[in-house]
């Protein structure tokens, strides 16, 4: 639950009001009050103003506290960006090492294909709640960058002959469509 929702819910309870009473007194729809308190939606400024007037809360103070708490949460987001960047580098490093190396043999290429299937499938299985586009942006951007880098420096034919491009395409496809594969039920 976000801090705005928590503060509004606490203020409502401290006034001894039910959600229905707050909705009636503030002239805000009951379902809107429920969504705000359950952090399902952010209230519009007019709605928030009506609720704050009813609960006798200073709207400006409430918003300034909310904004300062949002600024405090930037550290974990920066850490997440660095983690995703490192993860993308590791993923492309593994696939690139197994396929793009000029001395890669058949076993190495097979390992590259296997890794290109298993790693994205593992990622998809742990990020089921994520949309396909979000997953592709978070975990597949490194593959796209690597594809472009190899394409500009070595050409398409080299990337395709070494097996790198098919492996990257397999990984990107699984990252995007992997949740569809997980939803399929085996009929016995």
From TrEMBL:
One annotated GO molecular function: DNA binding
Residue ranges occupied by any HTH cro/C1-type domain in the UniProt entry: 8-62
InterPro entries reported for this sequence: Cro/C1-type_HTH, Lambda_DNA-bd_dom_sf
Keyword line: DNA-binding, Membrane, Transmembrane, Transmembrane helix
SUPFAM superfamilies: lambda repressor-like DNA-binding domains
Top-level taxonomic group: Bacteria
Membrane spanning residue stretches: 78-100, 106-124, 136-156, 162-182
CDD domains referenced in this protein's UniProt entry, alphabetically: HTH_XRE (cd00093)
Protein name per Swiss-Prot or TrEMBL: Helix-turn-helix protein
Species, as recorded: Mesonia algae
């Amino acid at each position: 639950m976000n801090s705005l929702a928590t503060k509004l819910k606490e203020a409502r309870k401290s006034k001894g009001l039910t959600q229905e009473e707050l909705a009636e007194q503030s002239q805000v729809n009951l379902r809107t009050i429920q969504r705000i308190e359950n952090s399902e939606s952010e209230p519009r400024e007019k709605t928030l103003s009506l609720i704050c007037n009813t609960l006798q809360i200073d709207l400006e103070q409430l918003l300034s506290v909310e904004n300062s708490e949002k600024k405090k949460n930037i550290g974990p987001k920066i850490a997440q960006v660095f983690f995703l960047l490192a993860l993308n580098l590791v993923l492309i490093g593994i696939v690139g090492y197994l396929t793009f190396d000029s001395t890669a043999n058949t076993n190495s290429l097979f390992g590259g294909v296997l890794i290109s299937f298993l790693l994205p499938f593992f990622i998809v299985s742990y990020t089921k709640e994520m949309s396909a586009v979000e997953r592709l942006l978070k975990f597949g951007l490194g593959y796209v960058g690597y594809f472009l880098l190899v394409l500009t420096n070595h050409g398409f034919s080299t990337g395709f002959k070494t097996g790198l491009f098919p492996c990257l395409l397999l990984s990107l496809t699984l990252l995007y469509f992997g949740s569809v594969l997980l939803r399929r039920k085996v009929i016995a």
